[in-house]
Design a protein that fits this description.
Length: 224
């Protein structure tokens, strides 16, 4: 994880850990929080996209630490949690937007590799991260934020719909288990947005009628 070694810009700020921060609603949430004075621990696989996010955050006077990591690698995620705990002692907000969107296809033609990757990112990684990040949230009475997408059962969404639904079932169980003892778990439902992910699912759609991801980020954060 890259940090400023001469002067720590994160001191005295609330910490938001954003997994899947390089694009879409994850990047928009990171930018909105940074503009409000939060320090962002941004995690994603793509270093270049993270650096572009960091440039935008710095442009609004914010600060970020970058973690070019793969959420499906258990050792990397364990190291991330240990590093965050050692440096900051906890997390005020965890925003989880990392997702694998398998190409649409009939249920009878599911690609085994796409199914395996979707399971690894959408289900297995989420399960591991909940276990790793829960103590960090409890240390600061923090909040975990997830995003629902009701695609289960829709035609051609068999892989994405099933693995996303499984992820949300896991999150809802966690939400019910921690309702009285913490951490707080929030599930948001964004409006249809003009993101790259949606563009893959609906390439011919009129994107001018879709919500702007930055507007949605601000709306969702305001609801918290």
């Amino acid at each position: 994880m890259s940090t400023d070694q001469t002067q720590d810009p994160s001191q005295g700020k609330k910490l938001a850990l954003v997994t899947g921060a390089s694009r879409g609603i994850g990047a928009a949430i990171a930018e909105a929080l940074a503009a409000e004075g939060w320090h962002i621990m941004a995690v994603a696989k793509t270093s270049g996209a993270l650096e572009e996010l960091d440039d935008r955050i710095q442009a609004v006077g914010g600060s970020a630490s970058l973690g070019p990591l793969d959420v499906t690698e258990p050792e990397q995620m364990a190291h991330l949690a240990q590093s965050v705990g050692a440096r900051w002692g906890g997390v005020d907000l965890w925003v989880h937007t990392a997702i694998h969107a398998a190409p649409l296809c009939p249920a009878g033609h599911i690609d085994a590799k796409e199914l395996a990757k979707s399971t690894a990112v959408n289900m297995t990684a989420t399960a591991q991260l909940i276990g790793l990040i829960e103590p960090l949230l409890l240390a600061r009475q923090g909040t975990a934020l997830f995003f629902d997408d009701h695609r289960a059962g829709q035609k051609f969404f068999s892989v994405y719909g099933a693995t996303k639904a499984a992820q949300m079932a896991m999150v809802r169980s966690w939400q019910a288990e921690t309702a009285k003892i913490g951490p707080r778990v929030v599930i948001a439902e964004p409006k249809p947005m003009a993101t790259a992910l949606r563009g893959r699912f609906f390439p011919g759609e009129d994107r001018s009628v879709l919500a702007d991801r930055h507007d949605e980020a601000r709306r969702i954060l305001a609801a918290l």
